[in-house]
Amino acid sequence: MKYSPWSQDAARVLLATLRDEKGPVLMALQLMQKEFGYVNPECVPLIANYFNKSRADVHGVLTFYHDLRTTPPGEHQISICVAEACQAVGARSLEKEVKARYTAEVSDSYCFGNCALGPAAMVDGKLIGRATLNKIEKARA
User: Fold this and answer.
1) Is the pLDDT score of 2 beyond 80?
2) Which value, to the nearest 10 degrees, does the dihedral of the CA atoms of residues 56, 58, 59, 64 take?
3) Considering only Cβ atoms within 10 Å of each terminal Cβ, which end of the chain, N or C, has fewer?
4) pLDDT greater than 90 at residue 83
C-alpha cells in the first residue's frame, strides 16, 4: 500500500473535511491512519486543538481502538484474529510464529467474522481462513 508522507499541513487538510461531523475524534484518527499508514503521535495535540478536546481525550480514543497504530507499518500488513474462536484453534501460536518472522508487519485483531475457518488472518486486506505461516507467506508474495 502506498501512503502519503506525514506532515502537519496534510493532516490539517484532512481534519478540515471533518469540521461538521459529530464525534470527529475517532473519524480523524482513522482518516490519519488511512492517509499516512499510522497515526503520528503529533496528531494527538493537533486533533485535540482542532476539535476543542483535551489531549487526554484524543489519546484515550487512540489507545482504546486496537486497530489504530502509532508507528509506520511494515511493507505488508498482517493481522491475526485472536478472538476466542480463533484462539481455540491455535491463533496465539500462529501469531507468535508470524511475529517471529515479520515483527513490524504483524498486529492482532478481534474477529474478522470468519470464525468457522479459524484461525483467521488478514494480509494486506485479503482474508485467509485456516491460516498457517505458509499461507501467510504466500499471501505476502
Assistant:
1) no
2) 120
3) C
4) yes
pLDDT for 103-117, tens place per residue?
Answer: 878 888 889 999 999
Confidence of residue 24 (pLDDT cuts 50, 70, 90): very high
Q: Distance between the two ends of the chain, CA-based, in angstroms?
A: 14
What are the domain boundaries of the chain? 8-64, 78-140
CA dist 53 and 56 (Å) reads: 8
The bridge status of strand 121-123 relative to strand 126-128 is antiparallel
Q: Evaluate whether the domain defined by 78-140 bears CATH number 3.30.2350.10.
A: no
Q: What is the pTM of this model?
A: 0.68
Which residues, other chains included, contact 35 with Cβ-Cβ below 8 Å and sequence gap of 6+?
3, 4, 10, 14
For 126, other C-beta atoms within 10 Å of its C-beta total: 9
